[in-house]
Amino acid sequence: MTAAVHISGLQKSYNGTEALKGVDLSIGEGAFYALLGPNGAGKTTTINILTGLVIKNGGTTEVFGKDTVRDYRFTRAQIGTAAQELPSDWFFPIEKLLYFQAGYFGISSQNAKPRVDELIERLGLTEKKDSRLRQLSGGMKRRFQLAKALIHDPKILILDEPTAGVDVELRHELWDYFRELHKAGKTILLTTHYIEEAEMLCENVSIIHEGKIIKEGSPKELTQSLGKAGITIRFTGWNDKLEPKLSNYSYTHEDGRLHFTVQDSEKSLPEIIAILAGESCHIQSVKTEQSSLEDVFLSLTGKGIHDEESQ
Amino acid sequence: MNWVGFWTLTKREVGRFFSVYRQTVIPGLISSGLYIMIFGFTLERRIREIAIDGEAVPYTLFILPGLAMMNTITNSTANTSSSMLQMKLLQQLPDILTSPLSSLEVSVAYIIGGTMRGFVNGILVVALGVFLIDLPIHNIPLTIMFVFMVSWAFASLGLLLGQLAESWDNLAMLQNFFLTPLSFLGGIFYSIHMLPEWAQSLSFINPIYYMINGMRYTILGVSDSSPELSFFMAALMTGLFTLAAVLLMKSGKKIKQ
Fold first, then answer.
1. Min Cα separation A247/chain B (Å)
2. Ordered per-residue pLDDT tens for chain A, 311 residues
3. Segment 121-150 of chain A within 8 Å of chain B by CB
């Protein structure tokens, strides 16, 4: 099956500084995929090359098997992009801007009307549809960005930091809408440096760092294979037979408290409980901790995802 | 060809300047009216007629074609250059560049927007001349064609400059240091024969001199330069500026990273 997005050996330099050092990426149709990395890692450059805003220095970028440079009319029609940068406009009401956007994609005003009306209503822009962009708040502009990206009903939706700078309520509202769009069959490529956003929404994540993809997998796979889990059990009834039975685990024991360090707590916990129960131990409490994608990111890159922003 | 996309962008570009006609149409008309009143009516007491091509032309009639041309050139250049720079600075350009529109379609849509503004402004000044000073028009179809051609040429130049510019300062510099002086030195208010020989030679390398005199010919039937040369220069600039603007757009050098 042809991938919705296929990127191979993508390279880009700005004034001699390598921004992308051979990015490889493949996103299946219908996937909810995140490109995760700190500011300056190469996320926006990658998607801008895909949409035609940045000229690449090397590598290939394909959308549904078609080259994004040679077959740009086809590939661009498949993609809707909600850019990170919020636009402004002094001349036209936002409803008119949506009609323009539909027009650029070859949809006449008459054919665009139902879609414009639907998106304006769904994204809560009805009261503001006659306002100019510069009169909208940041949150409203984010909603408008999304409406604009969806106006031509693209198969692939690119969300570049879609919840940057929005309040918690709107963030959850947008997350719900993203899930709805994904359920409806859209392929979604999300770039974010909010790890919980990627963890909660996406099936697959690529971690990009200094212009290279350094790890790819589902959030669960990544946290299980690269993260650590902790299990703390309070109990009574310790006996010497337990020591050999628990020899496969890394653990510490003191004062009726066992602390295990494991890869996957979901897999290890029932096994450990079975061993303790088999030796007639009385379990008082169980506490588990699984490392997050943020911990994985930290272990892979040696720094937190927000470190570069605060510098 | 993405006809709907092309038509949409063209409509947007034309609608953009019409939506702020107080800034884009009325000022040119007012300043031209003031030029006619101040330069024309007052100076005409001193300079009643200007001899051109062996004919004596009343001074107010003499300056009108140049005023129309200056208005055309200024407005057509300003429309495309400011629209392009504004789209770059306000993050609107990505909407166009990520859509399935070709560089040629985008360029021509912008140029048509600028051409319309230049054309409307030029023709309105001519109409003002007809209304205020009974301006006779030697050849109406040729006047319309010439205004259109010059508007297209300078709209293309504006598009080229809008792509190259990175700030409003860059554009203001172009307007203040090049276009306005070249327009004034192109013979709006005087005949080239009134200048010393060395200044006449300098005028020949000023492209706007040919635009003003081409316009003067289509309206008054007389001009300093030959009408054929004026039309040739206008056609040459139309071709060169259009090609340069489209090629720069296609390369993406100043609008894509």
1. 58
2. 789 999 999 999 988 888 899 999 999 999 999 988 877 888 889 999 999 999 999 999 999 999 999 999 999 999 999 988 887 777 889 999 999 999 999 999 999 999 999 999 998 889 888 888 888 888 889 999 999 999 999 999 999 888 887 888 888 888 999 999 999 999 999 988 777 788 888 888 898 888 899 888 887 777 777 767 778 888 888 888 888 888 888 888 887 888 888 777 778 888 888 988 888 888 888 888 777 777 777 777 766 666 544 33
3. 148
Do A161 and A94 share a domain, yes or no?
yes
Q: Are residues A162 and A286 both part of a single domain?
A: no
Residues A260/A230, Cβ–Cβ less than 8 Å: yes
Domain assignment present for residue A284? The answer is yes
Pairing verdict, β A58-63 and A5-14: antiparallel
Q: What is the number of alpha carbons within 13 Å of residue A296 lying toward its C-beta?
A: 30
Given a contact cutoff of 8 angstroms between Cβ atoms, the answer to whether A49 and A14 are in contact is no
Q: Is A107 on the interface with B (CB under 8 A)?
A: yes
Contact of B188 with B68, CB cutoff 8 Å: no
Amino acid sitting at position B254: K
Domain boundaries, position A277: 228-290
ipTM: 0.84
A154 and A268 in a single domain? The answer is: no
At position A84, the amino acid (one-letter code) is Q
| Rounded-to-integer distance, Cα A177 and Cα A121, Å | 13
In a domain, A302, yes or no: no
What long-range pairs does A237-241 form, CB within 8 A, spacing at least 24? Answer: A237/A279, A237/A280, A237/A281, A237/A282, A238/A281, A239/A279, A241/A279
In this structure, the answer to whether residues A11 and A123 fall within a common structural domain is yes
Give the residue from A162, A192, A218 where a domain finishes.
Answer: A218
Q: Minimal Cα–Cα distance from A108 to chain B, Å?
A: 6
What percent of the residues of chain B are helix, what percent strand, and what percent coil, each to the nearest 5?
75, 5, 20
Q: Which residue has the tokens 């091509």?
A: B53
Residue A175 and residue A256 share a domain: no
Closest residue in B to A44 (Cα) is B257
Note the pLDDT tens digit of each residue in A195-234.
778 888 888 889 888 889 988 888 777 777 776 777 888 8
When pLDDT is averaged across residues B98-103 and rounded to a whole number, the result is 94
Which of B98, B110, B249 to probe by mutation at the A interface, max A CB count within 10 Å? Answer: B98
In a domain? residue A300: no
Q: Three-class SS string for A27-82?
A: ECCCCEEEEECCCCCCHHHHHHHHHCCCCCCEEEEEECCEECCCCHHHHHHHEEEE
Put simply, the chain B residues between 75 and 114 with a CB less than 8 A from any chain A CB are 90-92, 94-102
- Give the integer Cα–Cα distance in Å for A260 and A242: 14
Q: What is the separation of C-alpha B207 from the centre of its chain, rounded to a whole number of angstroms?
A: 12
Domain-embedded: residue A303: no
